[in-house]
Amino acid sequence: MIPIILVLFLGTTMISSVYAQIEAGGVSSDTLPKGTTWYAGEGLKQGDFFSYSTCFVDYKECTNFEMDFWIKGDKIVGSETKWLAEVVVYDGKKVIVGEMELGKIAPEPTGGTENLGVYRGAFKSSISWLSAFATSDGTSGGKGPKEFSAASWGKIGNIGGQQVIPSAIETITVPAGTWESVVVSWKTGGAVSKVWIADDFPFPIKAATYTHVSEGIPPPEYIFKLLNYKENVQESPFIGIESTINEQIAQGCDTDIEKEVKHKRSTNNFKYQVHIFYGPEDPIVGCEIQWLINFLKFSDETDFLNQVQYDIFVVNDDGIRIRSIAQEEGRQFLYSPSGQALIDFIVKEDPGTANYVIWVYGLAPTGVVPSGTPDYLQLEVPIYDFDGSIPVEKIPSWIKNNAGWWADGTIDDDSFIQGLQFLIKEKIMKIPQTTQGFGGSTDEIPSWIKNNAGWWADGTIDDDSFIQGLQFLIKEGILKVPQPYKSSTSTGAEPEAWYN
Question: Sheet holding 177-188: strands in order across?
Fold first, then answer.
């Protein structure tokens, strides 16, 4: 048997240590002789179909999604010819269908369907990231193709400017098949990031890279692998696939979500601070809700926690868990290496008030059980019906007590009205939007309203009936609902009411 010799070109001197290979590389073999080059997009052509499983740190801190794309053909954009790719993203239970444009010199996305924006960004920073070093054209300041035998392809832009080098030749197997690949690597903090590429193949086969940190365990920056690859696909492989966002729009869901609701609280046992921003302000059953959660030290709200293992539960009024977002995503827990988490899911809770619980298991690397006792905070979120109608919220029992005392004369009209004004202003109690009346000849409260209050207090009538009575008081101008401050430079439009 004739041995196969793998030669590593390390500048002018052969260095045996692994660290030296990272700092100065270059590889060749019988199938990849010296002078063999590669660039991002090499061999890309009409009809190519790719399917990748991927994640990127800036999107939900490397939560996995699948991205499939098919090179449909050319597209003229101004004076430039680009590749036009049809794309489908499978992100949990969401399906996003659209297009993206890829450059021909460097296959980076430069435009496309708006709903794919965050995924195009992830694609550019992961699957096509090596186009920052190796492109099809080296003229006019371009990067040009790079040799596998080169000692370095360049330096990365983060702290330290580590060399990006071809460091080894490996035969790898992924779901799409088996390839002889070249490992392109660089050192990131205390970890070595690797991307596996194959000669004449447009994009890397797989990658495992890490973010730069000055201390601790570097979290993943991006991870991906090729699930499927086909050539000469002449008809769209995505016929019949529709975006789930179309269903959301059809039922009146808000798809341009602003996280306007803010809560800043400590956890139940005062171990952490949790700052929550969610939207839309009025979540609807069957629609998406988005959360931005900051996990902070209890003693310092500017100091983010690291390696937070957590979950979002839904519990019933007895505190029994009825839903886990982590489990719905097929995970044991949700994980935030940086202490800032972005997450979204579909609202499944019934109209009314839902009890969402941010459950913090503790601080530990993924796969390691945190030590210590978990902590949590509970958030009550009003949930709206499919038709956008505003639900009657759970009204605290002490308000019913007040209604009973008012009905039997223990407290007077003014005291009860002032109490209602406070509750509505502070959004402790919400009522449907009602035109504010200006009052008539009398501000006397009709006796039937008092009767309603008494019946509501003892459970004879339901919340809806009591709320209808309050709406009557507002329409008649008897119950004055406080309004926000109105600027003297106002256009004259009616000010927004405190009630919904």
Answer: 109-112, 94-102, 80-91, 65-77, 49-56, 220-230, 206-210, 191-197, 177-188, 163-174, 154-155
Residue 249 inside a domain? The answer is: no
Q: Is 391 a member of any domain? A: no
The domain of 436 spans 397-475
What is the C-alpha to C-alpha distance for residues 197 and 40, in angstroms, rounded to an integer? 9
Residue 332 is part of a domain; what is its CATH number? Answer: 2.60.40.1930
Assigned domain for 351 exists: yes
Nearest to 309 by CA among 59, 92, 93, 61: 61
pLDDT number for residue 270: 92
Say whether pTM exceeds 0.70.
no
Determine the residue type at 57: V
223 with 92, same domain: the answer is: yes
Is the pLDDT at 487 greater than 50? The verdict is no
Residue range 465-478: average pLDDT?
A: 74
Q: Is residue 280 a part of any domain in this protein?
A: yes
- Classify 326 in phi/psi space as left (phi over 0), alpha (psi -120 to 50) or beta: alpha
Phi and psi for 475 in degrees, rounded to 5? -60, -35
The pLDDT score that the predictor gives to residue 424 is 67
Sequence-ordered strand ranges (E) for 331-439: 334-336, 340-346, 352-363, 375-383
> Taking CA 399 as the corner, what is the angle to CA 395 and CA 402, rounded to the nearest 5 degrees?
155
Residues 258 and 224 in one domain: no
Question: Which pLDDT belongs to residue 471?
Answer: 73
Spatial distance between the Cα atoms of 71 and 102, rounded to a whole number of angstroms: 9
Are residues 438 and 360 part of one domain? no
3-state secondary structure of 201: coil
Interatomic CA distance for residues 39 and 29, integer angstroms: 18
- Comparing 215 with 457, the larger pLDDT belongs to 457
Token digits for 303?
């100091």
Ramachandran region of residue 313, left (φ > 0), alpha (ψ -120 to 50) or beta? Answer: beta
Rounded Cα–Cα distance for residues 483 and 162 (Å): 59
CA distance 278 to 290: 6
Q: Give yes or no: residues 29 and 98 share one domain.
A: yes
Q: Distance between CA atoms of 136 and 57, rounded to whole angstroms?
A: 28
How many domains does one find in the chain?
3
Contact 364, 307 (CB under 8 A): yes
On whether both 356 and 435 belong to a single domain, the answer is no
Asked if 295 and 350 sit in the same domain, the reply is: yes
